[in-house]
């Protein structure tokens, strides 16, 4: 009887955690893509206040590192154009004093060897400019003054559910 229930337990554990796709979670209202959860926030904030709001939610302004990631975000905006059309969206990079562009974690755009600047951009000679999806550029990248009020995209890690240890104490 003990043996039988052990077999059943192992079978249930195996079917839950070995033969189903990895399960995980994003907070309610966040979108899952790849290893991240994204929140498309419809509040108008300066860049720094947007970043602070993301941090408050365990996130940062989105750091885009690939065409796949960029296109996922642009497609979401275009599929939900009723909410987002006409609004620029802050992303997580800011011009540094040396003229390069850095993400909030200290890495640079150059590190990822990826960008999606609208042709001719960045073209703002000033400091105090930040990275946005510019709706007027079909959501390609633009540099704009960080104290403009924009919507924004937060990003946090997607946490897969960790399977519990198998019920070994019941085996044998
Ligand atoms: Ca520009
Ligand atoms: Ca703008």
UniProtKB/TrEMBL annotation:
<dbReference type="InterPro" id="IPR016186">
    <property type="entry name" value="C-type_lectin-like/link_sf"/>
</dbReference>
<protein>
    <recommendedName>
        <fullName>C-type lectin domain-containing protein</fullName>
    </recommendedName>
</protein>
<dbReference type="InterPro" id="IPR016187">
    <property type="entry name" value="CTDL_fold"/>
</dbReference>
<dbReference type="InterPro" id="IPR050111">
    <property type="entry name" value="C-type_lectin/snaclec_domain"/>
</dbReference>
<feature type="signal peptide">
    <location>
        <begin position="1"/>
        <end position="24"/>
    </location>
</feature>
<feature type="domain" description="C-type lectin">
    <location>
        <begin position="33"/>
        <end position="155"/>
    </location>
</feature>
<dbReference type="Pfam" id="PF00059">
    <property type="entry name" value="Lectin_C"/>
</dbReference>
<keyword id="KW-0732">Signal</keyword>
<keyword id="KW-1015">Disulfide bond</keyword>
<dbReference type="InterPro" id="IPR001304">
    <property type="entry name" value="C-type_lectin-like"/>
</dbReference>
<dbReference type="InterPro" id="IPR018378">
    <property type="entry name" value="C-type_lectin_CS"/>
</dbReference>
């Amino acid at each position: 009887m003990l043996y039988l229930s052990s077999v059943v337990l192992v079978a249930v554990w195996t079917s839950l955690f070995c033969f189903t796709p990895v399960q995980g979670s994003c907070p309610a209202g966040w979108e899952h893509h790849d290893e991240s959860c994204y929140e498309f926030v419809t509040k108008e904030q300066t860049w720094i206040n947007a970043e602070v709001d993301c941090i408050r939610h365990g996130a940062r302004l989105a750091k885009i590192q690939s065409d796949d990631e960029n296109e996922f975000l642009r497609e979401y905006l275009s599929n939900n154009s009723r909410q987002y059309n006409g609004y620029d969206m802050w992303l997580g990079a800011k011009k540094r004093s040396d003229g390069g562009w850095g993400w909030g974690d200290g890495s640079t755009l150059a590190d990822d060897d990826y960008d999606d600047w609208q042709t001719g951009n960045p073209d703002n000679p000033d400091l105090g400019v930040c990275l946005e999806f510019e709706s007027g550029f079909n959501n390609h990248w633009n540099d704009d003054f960080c104290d403009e009020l924009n919507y924004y995209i937060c990003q946090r890690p997607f946490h897969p559910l960790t399977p519990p240890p198998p019920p070994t104490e019941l085996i044998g």
